[in-house]
Queue: 2 jobs
Job 1
Amino acid sequence: MTNESRKHICPYCGEIFDTTDGLKVHVFKVHRGRGLPMAEGWIRLTINKSEYNLKVEPDWTLYYLIHDVLGLTGSKQFCDRGTCGSCTMIVDGKPVLSCMMLAIECDGKTVETVEGIAAEAHPLIESYVNHHAMQCGYCTPGFVVTSKALLDRVVDPTDDEIIEALAGNICRCGTYPQHIIAVKEAAAKLRAKGSAGKEGK
Amino acid sequence: MKNFKHFNAYSMDEAVSLLRHYGDRACIIAGGTDVLGKMKDAILPTYPEAVINIKTIPDLNYITESGGMLNIGALTTLSEIGDSEIVMSRYPALAQAARRVASPQIRNMGSIAGNICQDVRCWYYRNRNNRFSCLRKGGGRCYAINGDNRYHSIFGGSVSGGCFAVHPSDTAPALIALAAKVKTSSRVIGAQDFFEVKPIKTTVLGTDEIVTEIQVPEPLPGSSSTFLKFALRQSIDFPIVNCAAMITMKNGKVEDARICLNAVHVVPYRATESEKVIVGNSLSEAVAEEAGRAAVAQARPLEHNKYMVAVARTLVKRAILACGGV
């Protein structure tokens, strides 16, 4: 690639343009209002509604960054191979395994951890406590995060939907039946809150 | 994990040129659920020097149907395929297969291309720190032949060498049954010819080749497809045996059949013998039973995996019956 053609590569998406004006129009149209891309090794991350600019190493997983570097120790590491679900975080609205994600690839993403769910006083936390959906409690943050993602998507989940959604979380204490009760109660509370909010308006 | 260089590729050309530069010393990462596990356990004698992220390439995540063909972008996640209206209604085997892969979280991360390109799960091959330098890694012998081979091939080892590790993909048999094609950065390969056994390789992809698209031809009128999986657990588990079938009926008789088993051989195993049994017949319990027996007639199980023959036979029978709606 010659230096001349390098001039017209969009720094955001890599699209190539013949002229500077073409690039200008494209940037204004498509990437308006966005900051310039970060320097190598830096990522921009929104964690629980706060924005971070972080310097990360290529071999850091998202879990390592959030748990070990930033000190949000709610999510837990158990298998570190993507088979247990206790490190689950919500990334861009979907529950994913933070131990199997490279932090350097999460630039621009929005992450929600169990701390964020607790901070917004989500009814799941209370119903998990009320129904004691835990024994040793190590897997519980993963379950709570996965359930939160389900409740964001489904207002009134059935038993089967809850079982399907929580299929990726393992609890060696065997508290599975309690999770269904707890999630259903939290869903009912959320619905009550939602309809009360509408009437208030 | 050891440190490595990390590249975000912004176009397919960029990814290919990085692969050309690094050759075998680089690996592609999309969902990462397979490749990061391999790197964390350091199962291979060599460690990748560079990791090339292709998630940053735009427009590789789509499901469209046009011109008698379903096109699925390489980066489309398994949950997007499993939840897609088009795939569920017209290509049920693929949707069912995508929904049975691992766990919901992994389906949110893993891509369809990664699922067919994943590495084998043989526990000798996957043992930490390259403890067993087996045939598949260019070593001297297959440890599964005399070792614990309860999850290994029942149709013999690979021709070149004798590796008995089975191919673990769920979507691969579905794609083969649906007569899909795999489009790469340089060619189009039939799904059935896509798999190959070589040291540290499960596909025919060259070192500078990347899967870009999956193409599934439109189902013929009167055809139906299904996918069945037998695993020890309902979720987060690899198949003991899985089976996908597409059967086209005409005037009450089977006109065409494609049946593919996986996790029973070193590559997905097309059950051509059972296809021969059912083509031209009307579907009944007896015919399906016969087809199931034909599928495993050539089976040569090892010491600990004889049970897989019965599982494979039953899955073929059930898949045929499910397709025929009997």
Job 2
Amino acid sequence: MTEIEHYVAPTSLEQAAEYLRSGEVTILAGGTDLMPQSQSGRLKIKRTLMNIRRVPELNGIAIDNGAIRIGALATMTEIMQSELVKKHLPILIEACDHFASDQIRNAATLGGNICNASPAGDTLVPLLVLDAEVELASKPNGSLSRRRVPLADFFTGPGKTKLGAAELLAGVRIPLPGPARYARFFKFGTRPALDISTVSIGIAGTLKNGALSRVRVAFGAVAPVPMRAPRTEQALEGKRLDPKTIDAIAGVARDEVNPIDDVRASAWYRKELIHNITKRMLGHVAQT
Amino acid sequence: MSLKHDIEFTLNGVKRRATVPVDMSALNMLREVIGLTGTKYGCGEGECGACTILVDGLSLNACLMFAVDCQGRELVTIEGLAADAKADALRAAFVEHGAVQCGYCTPGMVMQASHLLATHPHADAETIKRGIEGNLCRCTGYKKIVDAIAAAGSADPQGAAP
Amino acid sequence: MNVREKKVRFIAPDTLIGKRIQKMDAPEKASGKTRYIHDIDLPGQLYGKILRSTRVHALIKSIDTSAAKALPGVHAVITAADIVNQRPIGVAKDHLPLKTDKVRSLRDEVAAVAAESEQIAMEALQLIKVEYEDLPILTDPAEAIKPGAVLVHPEPHRPDGEEHLKPVGPVAFTGKSDNIAMRFDYCHGDVVKAEADSDVVVEDTFKLHYVTHCCLGVSGMIAEFDASGHLLMYSNTQVPFLHKREFAEYLNMDPGQIRIIQPAIGGGFGSKLDIYPFEVICVFLARAAKRPVKLVFTREEEFISSPTRQPVLLTLRSGCKKDGSLTFRQVHTLHDNGAYTSWGATTPFVMMQTFSSLYRVPNCDYHTIAVYTNNPYAGSFRGYGNLQATFAVEAHMDKMAEAIGMNPLDFRLKNAQDEGEISGQGMDFKSCRFKECLTIAAERSDFRRKHADNIKNRKAPGPIKRGIGIASMLHVGGGAKIYPSDGCGTILKLDDFAQVTLITGASEIGQGSETVLSQLVCEELGLPMSALTVVNNDTAITPWDVGVHASRTTFIAGNSALGAARLAKVKILSAAAKKFECPAGDLDLRGGCVIKAESGEVLTDLPRLMRNMHFQDKAELVMTTFYYEPPSSHQDKDYKGNVSAAYAWGTQVVEIELDTETGIVKMTKVTAAHDVGRVLNRLGIEGQVEGGVVMGQGYALTESLIVEDGVTRNPNFRDYKLVTAPEIPEMDIAFIESMDGEGPQGAKGVGEAPAICVAAATANAIYNATGVRICGLPFTPERVYRALHGKGEKLFLERPGNSA
């Protein structure tokens, strides 16, 4: 039982940002999170329901100034089918392929996945190791302005981000990875998709002489937010990946995470998985 | 009392209007406002696929879609597939291969299969299984559903989207 | 002059039996035209919703429905106080639909609303104020059985000392001095002596968990009283005639004034075999509001409120001699009865059959105690206790084989029964190809070689281990005589165009019974499937059938339909014999015609003969009836007797790949060999086996209803994992036709069989791969991983004093 008083469907970013100034706005993009949350009572839709699906500035996947910009409304299916993403960001394809189901991939948006800020969010871990930034739009002083926030700083808690009340997430910018850039994502599960992650792992780095540099490591579903793992990154940075080193790094990874027990898995098991899968993934890096 | 909104969209090839509460799902609109009961409620959360419909050529869970978001779009439900020749072959394959038992998941399966074959003509068993991973069935164990979809796909000489 | 030349045709013999016959309702279902109960709306109907308890165990101090009643659009709000003489329902009559003074579990129904829309009904529920006083919660049957534990069903007392629940019928009513709901004790032979004579004795405790049916169509009901006060119910019950009689009792009505119509069902699997509070409450609402009421669950409500499979903690002690012959089995089980008694508590009827008779075991001793707790109650679910029992039996078959150094297949073959044997419990295996099931499943899966190879590979490097495991099952396949009658009635007629109407008491629950029955009748009458219409869903029209359970429908309803068809054939051939002046024994029905049996020569087509019979001086319409009661017996008070007219056997070999670094078990292949008597509809029976195997896969690997402190933690598909299409194994299924003498065309029941031994075989496969035996389900990655790392849960069952 909602108490929505207005339904609006702006056709420009400026218009959307204007509506947001009033506060009391719930944004509708793909609806794949909003509808079940509203129906179950977990979330109460505010007085204005704003459908942003007709805002053109939120679409598109294109190269812009040395980065790939993915509009907030890009669906998982669109991302998977984008030639640019296939060529430059295959790790993102991997994440989208394990996302829910075809039906949901056809509707769920990247912006929605980011703003939903689930600790287990499938696209969030790859985006973290890709050094993604979010592009936020608003009209604070009557004119449209944008700011960028590194994704690594964007999440503040389960379901919580630094998105301001009058801000709209317009897109995601990912610096174009260089030629020797290696990036892999692994989502643990018994099914190819339709699973909320028990744990997920992203590893990226520039591969040279059997070692990774400028390393990025991220974990999902083991913390209140999808997290970068600085200690694991430090242990991995520049090290030649022989079995003994890999073992040690996997140990650092296990110690770095502090997951909870929940219906999906216990904390102990999550830590074991982080250790074993990190080890396995680094073994693959060593063979590359 | 929820706020209502007027929408205009195409349903199964016919343009129409509807007045819907803004928080209503497309599933409830189809079943309660429009009266087409072929699209089923299985879970209301997008986990079972029983409510799969086509929207602008893509398969979606109607239970996750806001009815107001149907504005200006083209919807096809299982009732709409009844008029489609390609779908005839798919339906016949479901019947011939024993892919229907209680039948409750079948409309959603057929809708998803139709989309799958449109985008992956001549799909093999592995592709089909991934393609219907969002559709739950409790009766058949999926094998005959996969067989039916594969048969319908391989029988199609052109394999082009309708 | 027009001389119509008489064309003489010859029709070659052909048969429908064993063919791939399309399910008759499939075209409509595939078009989305089938109307399930959710799709049916009656004019003037209201929507019912139930207010459930928010406490696990509490006294109800007060219920205030005034605000709910005042909400515009609300027609009725009821609580137990509004029902005069509310009668308890369920197997033990310990269950009042609307609770009076106490709630005993989270699903308990406290109040109900009928309103103009679902939204209004739900709003009204929010306005009902209930005051509770918490009571201690019992979630562990081992705790609930201890002296001094709080009583879930204490003896009822009113302030004036009067009992306020009157006993109903011959069954005990609620009110006990302890929390024991039911006990079962069985024995054949002497296990003490047998143990002394054994060379090997093994003992383990097994823990079988909560799973739930997850029918894709949620539960629902529509109830309407007509102008004369007669009750019409649209219900997906699997036992419409039993329901008719029971509802009459609960509503204090004449059963003749109750009619049940069964719309197409969105799945059954045993979930609709008992009477549940929501059904009675729906009728109460219809009576109170004087309008039709439709009550449909949400999926969350379905998870929280539906009966589950019976969870069981059991200890099995088994013995054998060093030559491999089994000596004894001794079983103690603790059944968590939940807050109220439904069919789950009676699973021991089936479990003891497995312990006493799956493989030849000369001595068997079985004890169950079912204990009340504040957990969800269990009902009947495909296999009905047999999955749980087989899990234990087949673990020990492997364990004992290993202990005496015998190959697990040979150990089983040594103890497998032959045709004609009668088990210790009195089950008569008139058709039995058990050994063939074992050898065929083993050969087709290359069991011996793989089993040996996998053991060698246990210590090999690499995290992925392969495993292969074997298990068999025994289940009733010709009904189960637990009611006064295990029969089914059929009415059959042919019209002037030789179109057959088959009116059967047997319900269709998606398993294809209507197609198999039609197939049998069409075979008998030589007609195509298109000539037949089935009516099976209206108690005002159809004759009595006890219900769809115990894998009985093909066997019993099939024989009933055959009986009616044979009587029709006699009538037809006798009329044809008169007309064509030859003995009826020379004639047959084939290809829609009356033919000379030996030559195949066509004498006339059947529609023409029907019209001849109808429009002659002494008109004759072909209308026949038949009631089939299977030649099984009721068990005696010691549970002994030949309870079914036939038995189903099967062996399954499960192959897995296990990742020791994550615990993930992938089921790669299932090879099954099922003794089904005779394959009738090949398409249908394959579908039943494939579906049953995948249901068994879910039980083994992925499904678990997590109940903690009386709360269901995962009432949704997101966290209750059904098997999805990419996860299914490769399936190789062989049917063994033992041609049962009593079964229709030799067929036996198979509905439950394929789900029964998957988990047992999987456990053996995991052991084969790793050398680790896991005695609890499901084999989730975490459970397997823990077991491999020595952190598996320790299972223990405290055995109470001898309960004989």
